[in-house]
Amino acid sequence: MNHDAGDKLRLDNFLPYRLSVLSNAVSRKIADMYEREFDISIWQWRILAVLGESEGITSTEVAARTLMDKPAVSRATASLIDRGLVTRTSDTADRRKSALGLSTAGREVYNAVIPRALAYEQELLAALSPEDAEALHSLLTRLAQIASPERDLWDRRED
Amino acid sequence: MNHDAGDKLRLDNFLPYRLSVLSNAVSRKIADMYEREFDISIWQWRILAVLGESEGITSTEVAARTLMDKPAVSRATASLIDRGLVTRTSDTADRRKSALGLSTAGREVYNAVIPRALAYEQELLAALSPEDAEALHSLLTRLAQIASPERDLWDRRED
DNA sequence: TTGATTTAGTTGCAAATGAAACTATTATCG
DNA sequence: CGATAATAGTTTCATTTGCAACTAAATCAA
Q: What is the pTM (predicted TM-score) of this model?
């Protein structure tokens, strides 16, 4: 039981608060690392991450997969293109669209970030047994389904 | 195992990403509820929550307990005082400090918000067995200790 | 006691965010 | 076809945020 009686609430035990605080602490730390070591923001990193998995997707696809909104993708992509990490190839069939991809430099950054990102994740998970890590995974998935049932936040079926 | 090989990373399975997405979804939903039903922000709510538990604490204490920074507390408190939900009594011994507390109206809002907040938390936890909820609690605590060891985010010892 | 340091809290400001408006292009339907 | 609606993506703008600088008061140390 997280709370005592029916009508008491201790902020420290309140799930939305705990999630917010933990997520902020983690985000802050990892953002500092990305910034310091690679000079990219979390949003830029998310875009590199999905482009690393799937070359040639559109900005709208990126937004869907990173759960960023369109303006955020537009801005982060623009600066990645400026820095020569991402390429944009406009679609000849539908000229509203364009395919995004990693440049050679972008692929290099991607390859360099991955192990650091995984290492940080491992640092967090090191506190947990493999069974606990698996349990956490499952718990977060179930919570996400409740918090955002319409949107199916992750564990996307095959694309 | 969350990831496949040593050097692959699927954003959907990446813990910092998952925490961020889940926390944002939860925060968004609960912020909408606070706003719609009580016309308060999450930060105002946090302040009411700690003042409801401990009357007469200072702004610095509030900041420590809500993990908000001082300017955020200052601003949110100012608007709560404007609305007559919070009282400020300046300390006669040390005139830099002042004691914050809930006004009668503030206590009423506090009493009204509590059950709604708990109901939303229950909505989330309803997906989980009591053992799972307990496990989640423990997992989040352990992660917080890793993510922010210096700061001891919650489960504060007795005050 | 008085000058330097620390602490409480507020204000200012620059950057980040998010919603809505906008442009350009394609699709739909009479 | 030609007008209307829908879609991709960008830009604008108001709000929020977080940090640094600031004011006021108290403490410390000579």
A: 0.92
Q: How far apart are CA B152 and CA B145, in angstroms?
A: 6
Start-to-end C-alpha separation, chain A: 39
Give all strands of the β-sheet with A86-90 in edge-to-edge order.
A57-58, A98-102, A86-90
DSSP three-state, residue B57: strand
Residue B108 DSSP symbol: H
Strands (E), A98-145: 98-102
Percent of chain B with pLDDT over 70: 91
Phi, psi angle pair for B89, to nearest 5° = -120, 115
Mean pLDDT, all residues of chain A = 91
| Rounded distance between C-alpha atoms, residue A76 and residue A50, angstroms | 13
- Burial class (CB within 10 angstroms; exposed 0-12, middle 13-18, buried 19+) of A22: buried
* Chain A environment of B144 (Cβ under 8 Å): 18, 21-22, 25
CATH 3.30.70.330 assigned to domain B11-117? The reply is: no
Mutation target among B1, B4, B10, B26 for the A interface, most CBs of A within 10 A: B26
Which class does domain A11-127 fall in?
mainly alpha
Confidence of residue B149 (pLDDT cuts 50, 70, 90): confident
Question: Cβ–Cβ contacts within 10 Å for residue A71, how many?
Answer: 9
